[in-house]
Structures are given as C-alpha cells and as structure tokens.
C-alpha cells in the first residue's frame, strides 16, 4: 500500500463515520452484514519468506503436500492431498448449488469440505470424498444418521467473525426448505444460540467429546473450532477436552452475516493466533499430536505456507473458496451488481440479504441458477490446485521435500508489531522485538 | 505523476491559513486533522472455553449507570452509560433536539449557560459552570441533576475545593458535582479533583474541541481519550479510590465499540456530541465539519424527527455495547474490565498498558 492510499483511507474515515451514524440513527440497533472485517490488521503480508539463493535440487513434483490430520485418538485420520480444506458454511447461508460445488471441488483437489450450521445435504455427502460434519450450538439439521457419515466431526465453540455469538440467518433467506430443515418458521430472522445444550465449560465438553467418540466408534477425528480470543487458554482446554485437532479462527474470518461490531472489534488477528496456539500445544508437549488448523483471511498458497511455517498443520478457507465460486464478480449478461445489490462487484457485503447476484448466498431459485455446479466445482478445484502449487514452489525454494517442513525460521517480520506477535526477527535484524514490560507502566487488574 | 497530499500541507491546513488570513478561524468540531491512535486499535477477547457467553435473546445485560454516589444523596441515574453533551454555541433547534433526544433514551444532557425551555425539561440535566466562585450563586434557580465544573488553565485547586463545597452546600449535598478538564497531566489532575471533593471527573481527550469556543493553540495540547482513561484509572488506583470517584470519558466516542472499550479501560460513562450532531442532521457530510458551526442550525427538513434520530443512535450504541458485553460473558456493562481487551499496535499497547494481541 502506498502512502497516497493511506491518505485516501484517512479521508474515507470521516465519510464512513457519517454513513454509519446516519444509518444507525434510522435503524436504532446494531448493523448486520456479511463478508469480513474492514479493520487494518497485522496479516500474512507483514511476514516474508527468506529462502536461500542456493536452495538445493528438489524438483517441484517431488514436493509433497500430503497431510494427515487426527492421529491422536482416531482410528481413521483424515488423509488430505493438500493442507487446505474448505471450512464449514451452512446450507441456508449458502445455496444448495454452492454447497454442492464446494464439496465436489474439494473432492477433485483431494481435500475435505465441511457441512456447517444447517445440517448435511445428501448431495454434499455424495460428492465429498472427505466430509467434516459440523456440530453447532443451534443443532440445526443435525441427525445422528448424518453424523456417523462424517469423516471427521467439528464441534464449533465459536467463529472468528462473530466470537461468542450464534449464527444469524435473516428472514429473507429462511425459505420453506431451509425452514423445514431447521424446524423453524419460514421468513423469520433466525438467531442461533451461542451455548451448546450439552456443555457449559471444558469439563463437560470433555464428556461430550467422549460421547461423540463412542457414537463414531473411535473411528474419526474430532476437532474443536475456536474463535481467536484467549487463544492459549482455549487451545489448552480444547486439548484437555480430548480433541484430535483444534481449528483456530482469526479475526479476519468471513461470514454470511454477523453484527458489524463483532466483525470489527472482537478477536485477535489470525497471525498471532497461530503462534499462540502453537505455543500452547508446545507447552503441553502435544505439538504434532493435536493438529492445528488455521483459518481467517487465507487468500492463496503463500498465506497458507506462512501459516504452516508458523505452526499450523493445515489451513481452512471459506471466503477465498466463495470468491472462487464467483463472489463479487460481474458476469456479463447475467448479473448487474449495482442494480441488484446497490454496489459495484468487488464491494459487495450483502450475503445476509439473500440477494447474492451470483447465486452463492441466496435461497432464491432464480439467482441460484446463475451458479452452474459443474463449472463452479471446477473453479474451486483450480483454485485449490493453484494454492497447492504455490506451497510447493515455496517449499522447494528452501530445498525441502514436504510443505510440513516449513518452520518459523524461514520467515521474517516487516514491522515491529508483527515481530512481537509472530516472535520473528525484523527483516535484516537478528533479534525478535519484544515489549520491555519492566519499563512499561502496567495497569494490572485490581 | 500523481502526487498524494503533502503530509503537512493538507487541504485542511491550507484552508486554515486562508481562513486566518481572512480574519477568521477554522473550527474543528469533530476530530483533529491528523492521525492519532483511536479505540479501533483495541480488540475485545470474547468468551471461549475459559468463560461462557450470554445468550442475546434471553439473558439480560444491564445498562443502568449511577454516577456521583461518592458524596451526593441523589446520584445521577441514567439508563445507558452514554449521555449527550450539547453546547450553548449551537442553534436553538439543534439544542432542542439534543435535549429531547436525551430524554427519550432516559439519559442525560450536559450543557451550561442560559437554558432553553426544552433543556430545562430534559429528563436528566448536567449543568455546566465555569470554575469561578460566582458560579455557585446562579445554581439555585435551575432544576438540575448534577453540576459540572469546567476547569480552565487558571483554576487553582484550593479555589476549586471551596467552589465545590459552596455548590454542595447550596444544593444540600443532594446532587453530585463533576469536574471536567482536558486530558493533559491526567494523573495529577485526577488526584487534584479527588482532593477537591469532586464526585466524578469528565476527562476530555484530544478528539474533543468544544463547538464554538476555539481553544486556539491549546486545542490539540492533550492526549487521546484512549490514553487518558487508563491514566485516570491509574491515578485512582494509586490513591486507593477506585470506584469512589467516577470517570466519564469524552472525545472520539462514536460507536458502541468505542464506548464499550472506554468502559473496559476504566470509564464509568461516556459523553457523545459529534455523533449526536450527525444523527440529528446538523452535520450532513464531512465537508460541513470545517464550516463555521456557530451560525448554523437545523433546517426545517432535518429538524423533524431529529430528537428521535439522536435517541435511535444512542440506542444503537447501547445495543452494540450490550452485544459485546454478552460475548464477554458480562451481564452488566459496568462489569467490562481491563482484561477484556488487547492492543493491536505498539502505540496503543504503550498508551493503555494493555498487552499486545498475541504477546
């Protein structure tokens, strides 16, 4: 970003404040939208790989991206061809076509996809080669028959885009079919609960995890998805509850609908969250036993490789996969973003309205037809393959044979905040920058 | 070649010099024309496995706020920790809208000088006076729920103590006395206010510049609100008076996230002004911020429903605060605390003493 961009951002700040206040003065409540945060945060761009000029003679196709997740307790771990899978997004937030295309695309790329807060679609199970079955506090669409069909189970403690709150599905998207699936009245705003019915704290969570193991006969991995807030404590408690893996969902995570105040002001960025999660597992001596998945704002193979170098075993993508499906893309002769959602393609955050011009986040059959499943699944697979290729290129530059061999020492930070947060030296320096807490005024909680 | 704005010769700086050369002033009624750390550089650490969140639709979050219980028999009770600061320099109809808006939300209006009939009818009134002994005399004629003494640079702490004593005697120790000052040497100033017998302090950060009264060279001689609140809290902690004297933060608070962060840093309440002026329709676009606001008022069209819009804005802010509080597992806005926050930048971390996210 150039300095002129920064000046522009600054000029926009007052305009954004005005718009926000004017809307709230009519609305009288908090605002809801889709997409992701607009805050400026430390991200993967703030760290760089520094490969040697003479990296060795590994060939690109010799680099392995195979990833095995869930070796702690599960008899059948997930075997992925690439350490990237598609995160849980509900049928309800997404159209059936979108869900099907994601499952199909992930299968083509040899990786997993995940159900979401609305139950499993038969098509989804049909096309997915590896399907993660998600359990949310709402239990919408959950059935024990579907659950045992999962190749892994994910218990959602919370999401990075809306930590400590349940899912939101605006009435416009609660169609007859969705309503029936969720056992709800059609057309009414649905606010999911945030606390699970079976457990309140980590101890009863442990019992719940054990129950899931019994139900699935200790066959499949059980992972816990945690919003990145008090990462160290939460990852340790998740490991204690008996999880095979932990998904840490950073502040940059996307959503189909969240209150803006949580999107922009709650949780910590993905990059420091990965580092804290790694340290938590190291402190417990469980690094490599409990797998770590990072998600929230991962856009390409370089971001994924950086996440892995910092300590993740795999990454999950949501927003990027949606964009691969044509989110925020004007389709000549088919869509008219400005007319349909009032903004140019590239600026749309209207997932919550159900008016998605490209048929992804909608339950309107007319709009859904704009997403052609076969073509879309191909795009998802292409995108996943491009990420895999990028990860191979980086791994090869270091002369390694597996993407899992990337380590924090391969990276350096470009600014002071990132140096502190990622425990990496600034580029060109040898020392990691730390906050000198002895000379800092500390205002301890009373 | 495309040139960005010069860092120092910004359009505002150029306009300021033009206006001064014309014999006028550029009144910044909104925010200083520079980048300063804001509440956006702090984030909340929501509940996960260490504590549980409250459900939005069935578990209440208390918003009622009590200010000035230190020595008054009737402290100021407002239904939200957000109240509205008005100004005698504003036009009549905008003043009326702010007063009425504050009543609609069961909150307070803060204003001094000669009051309009709408203002005397405000549900809760914080009456502002200057720190002069004669200020105590005029108070008996007005119905008010708190007195706010605005300290200026020539106020002497002993005289302030005498004034506060006189005000309290005048009002039979019923209503609380607030002391308001710009955030300079916050720790010393809070301790002085504590000694002078104040019930609450209103600390005005760098983001506030009073409408219609240019403070000239001293306008920007302060610290940002985000740094001032922890300083005030630290002063109280050092004096073993936490919870005794209330802290009210003013400046740069626009959204519920800003207000919730202010409370978590140690404030008991916040006052807003610019947001209310935008909601009312007084400022309609950022371009109007630099115009001479003292001569303007709400026009006919924007005057209708202005009070309701102000009330709806404060409702939104309060709901946003409650949403954040519930996500932190708190059933009362006053339970928001220091350790609910982390900083995103080194500057914000140093200013607040909060840990950097991920540190």
Question: What tags apply to this protein structure?
Answer:
heterodimer; A: 446 residues; alpha/beta; eight-stranded parallel β-sheet; two-stranded antiparallel sheet; globular; disordered N terminus; B: 359 residues; TIM Barrel; 11 helices
What features would you describe in this structure?
The complex is a heterodimer of chains A (446) and B (359). Chain A is of the alpha/beta class and 446 residues long. In chain A, 35% of the residues lie in helices and 14% in strands. In chain A, helix 2 (96-108) crosses helix 14, helix 7 (231-240) packs across helix 9 (270-284) and helix 10 crosses helix 14. By secondary structure, chain B is an alpha/beta fold. The model of chain B is unreliable at 28-33 (pLDDT under 50). In chain B, helix 5 packs across helix 6 (225-238) and helix 7 (256-265) packs across helix 10 (306-327). Chain B has a single domain (30-352), classed as TIM Barrel (Alpha-Beta Barrel), CATH 3.20.20.70. At the A-B interface, helix 1, helix 7, helix 8, helix 9 and helix 15 of A face strand 1, helix 6, helix 7, helix 8 and helix 10 of B.
């Amino acid at each position: 970003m150039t300095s002129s961009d920064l000046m522009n951002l600054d000029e926009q700040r007052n305009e954004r404040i005005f718009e926000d206040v004017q809307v709230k003065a009519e609305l009288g409540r908090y605002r809801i939208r889709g997409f992701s945060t607009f805050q400026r945060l430390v991200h993967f761009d703030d760290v760089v790989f520094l490969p040697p000029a003479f990296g060795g003679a590994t060939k690109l196709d010799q680099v392995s991206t195979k990833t095995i997740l869930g070796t702690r307790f599960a008899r059948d771990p997930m075997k992925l061809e690439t350490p990237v899978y598609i995160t849980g997004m509900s049928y309800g937030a997404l159209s059936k076509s979108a869900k099907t295309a994601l499952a199909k695309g992930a299968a083509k790329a040899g990786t997993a996809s995940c159900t979401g807060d609305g139950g499993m679609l038969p098509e989804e199970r049909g096309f997915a080669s590896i399907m993660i079955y998600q359990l949310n506090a709402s239990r919408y669409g959950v059935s024990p028959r579907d659950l045992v069909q999962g190749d892994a189970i994910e218990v959602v403690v919370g999401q990075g885009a809306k930590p400590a709150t349940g899912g939101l599905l605006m009435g416009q998207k609660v169609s007859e079919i969705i309503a029936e699936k969720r056992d709800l009245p059609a057309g009414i705003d649905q606010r999911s609960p945030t606390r699970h019915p079976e457990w309140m704290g980590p101890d009863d969570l442990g019992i719940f995890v054990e129950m899931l193991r019994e139900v699935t006969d200790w066959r499949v991995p059980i992972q816990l998805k945690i919003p990145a807030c008090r990462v160290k404590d939460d990852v340790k408690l998740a490991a204690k509850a008996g999880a095979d893996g932990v998904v840490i969902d950073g502040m940059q995570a996307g959503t189909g609908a969240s209150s803006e105040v949580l999107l922009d002001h709650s949780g910590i960025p993905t990059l420091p969250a990965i580092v804290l999660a790694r340290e938590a597992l190291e402190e417990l001596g469980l690094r490599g036993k409990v797998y770590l998945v990072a998600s929230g704002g991962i856009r390409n193979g370089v971001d994924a490789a950086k996440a892995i170098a910092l300590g993740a075993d795999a990454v999950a993508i949501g927003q990027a996969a949606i964009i691969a499906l044509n989110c925020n893309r004007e389709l000549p002769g088919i869509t008219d973003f400005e007319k349909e959602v009032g903004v140019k393609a590239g600026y749309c955050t209207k997932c919550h309205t159900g008016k998605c011009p490209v048929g992804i986040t909608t339950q309107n059959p007319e709009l859904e037809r704009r997403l052609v499943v076969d073509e879309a699944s191909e795009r998802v697979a292409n995108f996943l393959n491009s990420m895999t290729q990028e990860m191979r290129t980086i791994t090869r530059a270091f002369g390694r044979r597996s993407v899992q061999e990337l380590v924090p020492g391969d990276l350096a930070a470009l600014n002071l905040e990132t140096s502190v947060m990622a425990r990496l030296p600034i580029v060109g320096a040898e020392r990691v920058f730390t906050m000198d807490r002895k000379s800092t005024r500390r205002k301890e909680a009373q | 070649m495309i040139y960005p704005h010069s860092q120092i010769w910004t359009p505002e700086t150029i306009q300021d010099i033009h206006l001064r050369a014309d014999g006028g002033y550029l009144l910044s009624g909104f925010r200083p024309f520079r980048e300063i750390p804001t509440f956006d550089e702090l984030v909340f650490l929501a509940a996960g496995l260490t504590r549980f969140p409250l459900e939005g639709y069935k578990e209440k979050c208390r918003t009622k706020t009590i200010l000035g219980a230190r020595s008054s028999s009737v402290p100021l009770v407002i239904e939200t920790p957000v109240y509205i600061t008005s100004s005698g320099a504003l036009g009549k109809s905008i003043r009326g809208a702010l007063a009425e808006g504050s009543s609609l939300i069961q909150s307070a209006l803060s204003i001094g000088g000669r009051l309009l009939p709408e203002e005397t009818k405000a549900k809760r009134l914080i009456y502002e006076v200057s720190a002069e002994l004669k200020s105590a005399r005029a108070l008996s004629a007005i119905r008010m729920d708190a007195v706010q003494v605005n300290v200026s640079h020539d106020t002497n702490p002993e005289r302030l103590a005498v004034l506060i004593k006189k005000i309290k005697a005048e009002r039979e120790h019923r209503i609380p006395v607030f002391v308001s000052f710009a955030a300079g040497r916050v720790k010393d100033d809070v301790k002085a206010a504590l000694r002078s017998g104040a019930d609450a302090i209103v600390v005005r950060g760098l983001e506030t510049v009073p409408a219609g009264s240019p403070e000239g060279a001293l306008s920007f001689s302060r610290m940002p609100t985000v740094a001032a609140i922890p300083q005030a809290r630290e002063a109280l902690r050092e004096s073993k008076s936490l919870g005794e004297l209330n802290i009210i933060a003013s400046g740069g608070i626009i959204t519920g996230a800003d207000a919730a962060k202010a409370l978590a840093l140690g404030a008991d309440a916040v006052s807003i002004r610019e947001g209310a002026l935008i909601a009312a329709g007084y400022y309609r676009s950022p371009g109007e911020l630099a115009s001479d606001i003292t001569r303007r008022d709400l026009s006919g069209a924007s005057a209708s429903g202005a009070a309701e819009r102000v009330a709806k804005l404060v409702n939104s802010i309060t709901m946003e605060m409650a949403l954040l509080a519930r996500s932190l597992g708190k059933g009362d806005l006053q339970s928001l605390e220091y350790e609910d926050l982390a900083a995103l930048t080194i500057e914000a971390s140093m200013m607040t003493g909060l840990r950097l996210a991920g540190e």
